[in-house]
């Protein structure tokens, strides 16, 4: 029996790829799987004000656990 847990993942990438959010997420799950949660994740694009890098914050299993304490969950940052 596998346990399901909420995780926050930050994908950091060049602004050159800002229009390719879906492709970046799909590729991330393909490379770093098998954690792909079907459609049970929420993505939040973020643009830093003074940087040439963007971030996509993925809340994995965020739909299953919408009231999780964000300060208590694990967070991983990946450069893609």
Describe this structure in words.
It is a single chain. This protein is an alpha+beta fold. The protein has one domain (7-79). The protein has one helix at residues 21-32, and strands at residues 7-14, 41-46, 53-60, 74-79. A 4-stranded mixed β-sheet has the order 2-3-1-4, covered by helices on one side. The radius of gyration is 13 Å and the shape is globular. The mean pLDDT is 79.
Provide the descriptors you would attach to this structure in a database record.
single chain, 80 residues, alpha+beta, 1 helix, 4 strands
- Number of strand segments: 4
- Order of strands side by side in the largest beta sheet? 2-3-1-4
Oligomeric grouping of the chains: single chain
For the largest beta-sheet, the strand count, sense and barrel status come to: 4 strands, mixed
Question: What is the number of helices?
Answer: 1
Indicate the proportion of strand residues. Answer: 35-45%
* Gyration radius, rounded: 13 Å
- 3D shape: globular
H-E order: EHEEE
Domain unit count: 1
Mean pLDDT: 79
Helix content: 10-25%
For the terminal residues, how far apart are their CA atoms?
Answer: 31 Å
Low-confidence stretches: none
Short summary of the structure?
With 80 residues, this protein is α+β, with helices and mostly antiparallel strands. It is built from one helix and four strands; from the N terminus they run E-H-E-E-E. A four-stranded mixed sheet has the order 2-3-1-4, with helices on one face.
């Amino acid at each position: 029996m596998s346990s399901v847990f909420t995780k926050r993942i930050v994908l950091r990438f060049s602004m050159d790829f800002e229009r390719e959010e879906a492709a970046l997420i799909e590729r991330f799950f393909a490379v770093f799987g098998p954690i792909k949660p079907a459609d049970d994740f929420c993505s939040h694009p973020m643009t830093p004000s003074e940087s040439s890098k963007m971030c996509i914050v993925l809340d994995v299993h965020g739909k299953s656990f919408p009231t999780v304490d964000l300060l208590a969950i694990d967070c991983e940052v990946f450069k893609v």
